[in-house]
Structures are given as C-alpha cells and as structure tokens.
Protein: CD225/dispanin family protein
Amino acid sequence: MTAQPPPGNYPPGGYPPPPGNYPPQGPQGSPPDNNLVWAILCTVLCCLPLGIVAIVKSTQVSGLYAQGRYAEAQKSADDAKKFAMWGAIASVAIGIIWAIIAIAGGMAGMSSDY
Structure:
C-alpha cells in the first residue's frame, strides 16, 4: 500500500509542493561591512549617543545576514555608517562652536583689562 497525499490539486507526482522558499536561498555575495570599528571610534572619540546607536545597528548586521534577511542586514549596515558619520560631524561642529566661544570669551576678557 503506497502513501496517498491528502486530497487537493497537486502537481504530477501527487505530492504537495514543499513549504516556504525551498530550497533555502544561500547568501548573495559576502555579508555587508558592519562598520563596527567606525561605530566604536565614534563612541569613544566623538559623540557618545550617536556612537551607541551606531554600535547597536552594526551588531545587528551579522545576525540578520545569518537569518537570510539580506536587505535588513544591508540597511542596518548603512544605518550604522550613517550614525557614525553624523556623530563625527556633530563632534566637529561642537568643537568649532566651542572654539569660537572660547576665542570670543578671551577677546572679551582682554578688552576689559584696558
């Protein structure tokens, strides 16, 4: 006695199609760069809040890629890079503003001595 498939409209061979995306799709190329080094450097040297967000995003890349969620892994890698860059830009901008205030304060202090 042969095993009979459950009733339904199946392809010739009599068995239902395999569930989901079978066979599983392999990785399409190499995993995206997670930008973890830039995220850590941004956190330590530049802007702590944006650096922490960049670290969180960069650590998500490997897990998402391993799960086969390639587009989400690439988006997390791009977000990590974006937050690290914005942290560096914010740090430079704050440094420039601080320098302007320090120079203006120094000039104000010099003018009151005369």
